[in-house]
């Protein structure tokens, strides 16, 4: 049945917030080096990660093994969201002084307001609540085991581990290049802050993250964007109460600020993807409507393997995505292209 819309109310959207700190980079570095299956997909080569493992202390290596076993990098990220820490000492003092229940609660992942009572009960070692929280998060590859760990680990063991691994990683890995790293993060923060005034919230999030289409959710009022260098080219997504978080990869321009001719890596990917006759035809076909692979091959009269190759490149550039088993054009990605080029030409 058709609906006659007489409402004057516009669809609500979220507000975008930006933050940066080398402390986020530290926690994400710990997450990266302990995510062994993902290491070879990161921008930094395997030789970089091998050299870190060869240069750091044995004690830190042992704690990284503990991180890999228990995913305590998640606890570090959760804690970093509690306040704006001024430095590593501020963070470690906070962990040391936190009481047992508060620290466990902070470390547990947020899974929705309606489950906050279960989250509270879980830290009391309520077996039914822990079981329920694990069930709620069962589609996540590590949350259930992580929840069990946080609810049962001896609190001083957890505190000592978190303090040592974060402090040691910062001192041994981040601090030697902290000035350069902080400048890169600051450059990206400033560039994003400037562009935020020129785009809608949804358009901006898609641009900053290289194509993440995040539509407003009823319980999410803010999107927090945190630039990171160590996990390029990946975006990392997290949930807080009322906030969606994206730790997004910094741009090429932020890494090479003195080269005014250095284009943004996402812009390069888009332009390369669009610089082909077949791919432009596909874009126009998908602008008209979502289509299956079969539909596209019929329209273009090309082989499936050829069309699939072009679609793969368009997807890599975050111009095309798959929705309900069909290929769909990401309109935000196309709409923001002129603003991205304008920003590049006038920087």
Automatic annotation (TrEMBL):
SMART domains: HTH_ARSR. Transmembrane segments: none annotated. Keywords: DNA-binding, Transcription, Transcription regulation. It comes from the Bacteria. Pfam families: HTH_5. Residues 259-347 form the HTH arsR-type domain. Signal peptide: none annotated. This is Winged helix-turn-helix domain-containing protein.
């Amino acid at each position: 049945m058709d609906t006659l819309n007489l409402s004057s109310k516009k669809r609500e959207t979220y507000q975008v917030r930006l933050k940066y700190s080398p402390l986020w980079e530290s926690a994400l570095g710990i997450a990266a080096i302990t995510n062994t299956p993902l290491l070879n997909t990161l921008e930094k080569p395997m030789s970089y990660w091998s050299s870190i493992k060869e240069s750091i202390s044995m004690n830190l290596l042992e704690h990284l093994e503990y991180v890999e076993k228990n995913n305590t990098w998640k606890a570090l990220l959760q804690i970093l969201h509690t306040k704006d820490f001024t430095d590593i000492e501020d963070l470690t003092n906070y962990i040391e002084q936190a009481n047992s229940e508060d620290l466990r609660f902070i470390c547990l992942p947020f899974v929705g307001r309606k489950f906050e009572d279960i989250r509270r009960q879980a830290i009391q070692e309520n077996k039914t609540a822990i079981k329920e929280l694990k069930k709620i998060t069962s589609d996540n590859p590590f949350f259930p085991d992580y929840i069990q760990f946080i609810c049962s680990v001896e609190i001083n063991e957890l505190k000592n581990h978190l303090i040592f691994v974060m402090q040691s990683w910062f001192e041994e890995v981040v601090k030697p290049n902290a000035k350069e790293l902080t400048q890169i993060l600051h450059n990206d923060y400033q560039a994003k802050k400037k562009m935020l005034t020129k785009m809608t919230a949804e358009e901006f999030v898609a641009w900053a993250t290289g194509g993440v289409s995040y539509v407003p959710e009823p319980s999410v009022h803010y999107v927090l964007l945190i630039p990171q260098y160590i996990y390029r080219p990946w975006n990392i997504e997290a949930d807080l109460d009322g906030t969606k978080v994206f730790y997004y990869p910094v741009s090429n321009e932020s890494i090479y600020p003195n080269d005014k001719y250095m284009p943004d890596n996402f812009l390069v990917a888009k332009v390369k993807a669009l610089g082909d006759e077949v791919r432009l035809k596909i874009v126009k076909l998908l602008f008209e409507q979502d289509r299956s692979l079969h539909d596209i091959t019929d329209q273009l009269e090309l082989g499936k393997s050829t069309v699939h190759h072009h679609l793969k490149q368009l997807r890599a550039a975050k111009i095309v995505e798959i929705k309900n088993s069909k290929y769909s054009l990401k309109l935000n990605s196309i709409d923001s292209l002129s603003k991205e080029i304008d920003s590049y030409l006038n920087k």
